[in-house]
């Protein structure tokens, strides 16, 4: 289903054939989820090439392989394997790839973000099939894990793994107090992951339903950032109450919403020697005040994380394979639409109460 511009319906386009080059894999999509970035693209909130095939969170099954096609673990890919794959296609040889930043490759291409072109028409998850190109991290997944759990691994879950990786390089996650701003898909995933690692998690989100969801994923306390200062639900008051109960000050903050005030809160409230990881600020926004003296005296580190590495994706899949029994990940997908109703899926995702909306790639009637 091809997006051609703001306000235009997605168009069904048939692709009569696919040429697999060495390292390429053809995957039949089992299930896809609508990421917030898909919605932002469709609404024109971000500059995007067009026409394009949206979608970069999906799980599928290998139906054809090119020569020398391998999974992240180095094993050859085979027809019939169930897989997820990275949002990024990287060259592996440029200076950024050699520095361990393949998600910022100088030759980078991204599923669900590139202009549809001859030779790579099947470039996004809102389709019956995706041509997974050489240079993409592919991870074989367990047959028993629900598709609703696995599909977000290639964006939301792997990004949270990358964020915690950036934080834990400076502050051990076990035993830390973690402040999470934003309780969408990334936020509740962060709650579960940090809780499982032995951290204490406090979540800030203005939406009451999302705050309740964060509690279900392990948060010990939730706060309403829109609450008046010095109220019982104000973030400062909640953290002060936890401190009286013996909970340490936050030394890890994950900012996942992109909201300016949330960024300010994370920077202002992080404890001595703490690290603030900015993840949600992927669109232009108002600047945030930064007091250099405060940063210096508190020994604060601010890091940015965008997308993730192949190792992060592999770790995300491993985590979900066990965590879906402990946490209600399968309940995070609300409405599910057939592929031919991808427009409705996007519209629902823009206003949905659930963190994700699903798409099943049932062939449109026009294609038989």
UniProtKB/TrEMBL annotation:
InterPro entries: ADH-like_C, ADH-like_N, ADH_phosphonate_catab-assoc, ADH_Zn_CS, GroES-like_sf, NAD(P)-bd_dom_sf. It is an enzyme of class 1 (oxidoreductase). PROSITE patterns: ADH_ZINC (PS00059). It holds the Pfam family ADH_zinc_N. Keywords: Metal-binding, NAD, Oxidoreductase, Zinc. Gene3D superfamilies: Medium-chain alcohol dehydrogenases, catalytic domain (3.90.180.10), NAD(P)-binding Rossmann-like Domain (3.40.50.720). GO terms for cellular component: cytoplasm. Residues 186-319 form the Alcohol dehydrogenase-like C-terminal domain. Its cofactor is Zn(2+). One of its GO terms (molecular function) is alcohol dehydrogenase (NAD+) activity. Its EC number is 1.1.1.1. CDD domains: MDR_TM0436_like. Residues 22-138 form the Alcohol dehydrogenase-like N-terminal domain. Belongs to the zinc-containing alcohol dehydrogenase family. NCBIfam families: HpnZ_proposed. This is alcohol dehydrogenase.
């Amino acid at each position: 289903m091809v997006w051609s511009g703001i306000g235009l319906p997605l168009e069904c386009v048939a692709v009569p054939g696919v040429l697999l080059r060495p390292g390429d894999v053809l995957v039949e999509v089992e299930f896809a989820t609508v990421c917030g970035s898909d919605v932002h693209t469709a609404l024109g909130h971000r500059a995007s090439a067009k026409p394009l095939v949206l979608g970069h969170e999906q799980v599928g099954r290998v139906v054809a392989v090119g020569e020398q096609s391998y999974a992240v673990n180095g094993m050859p890919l085979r027809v019939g394997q169930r897989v997820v794959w990275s949002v990024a296609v990287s060259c592996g040889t440029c200076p950024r790839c050699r520095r361990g930043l393949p998600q910022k490759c100088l030759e980078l291409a991204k599923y669900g973000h590139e202009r549809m072109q001859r030779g790579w028409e099947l470039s996004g998850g809102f389709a019956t099939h995706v041509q997974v190109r050489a240079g993409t991290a592919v991870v074989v997944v367990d047959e028993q894990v629900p598709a609703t759990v696995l599909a977000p691994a290639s964006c939301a879950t792997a990004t949270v793994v990358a964020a915690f990786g950036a934080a834990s390089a400076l502050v051990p996650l076990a035993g830390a107090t973690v402040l999470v701003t934003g309780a969408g898909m990334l936020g509740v995933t962060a709650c579960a992951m940090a809780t499982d690692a032995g951290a204490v998690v406090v979540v800030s989100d203005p939406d009451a339903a999302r705050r309740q969801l964060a509690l279900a994923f392990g948060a010990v306390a939730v706060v309403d950032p829109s609450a008046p200062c010095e109220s019982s639900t104000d973030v400062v008051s909640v953290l002060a109450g936890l401190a009286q109960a013996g909970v340490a000050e936050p030394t890890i903050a994950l900012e996942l919403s992109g909201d300016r005030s949330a960024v300010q809160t994370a920077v202002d409230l992080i404890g001595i020697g703490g690290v603030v990881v900015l993840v949600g600020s992927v669109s232009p926004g108002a600047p945030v005040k930064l007091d250099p003296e405060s940063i210096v005296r508190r020994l604060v580190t601010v890091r940015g994380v965008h997308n993730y590495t192949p190792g992060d994706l592999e770790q995300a899949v491993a985590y979900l394979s066990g965590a879906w029994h402990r946490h209600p990940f399968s309940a995070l997908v609300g409405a599910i639409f057939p592929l031919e109703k991808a427009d409705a899926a996007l519209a629902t995702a823009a206003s949905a109460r659930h963190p994700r909306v699903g798409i099943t790639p049932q062939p449109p009637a026009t294609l038989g």
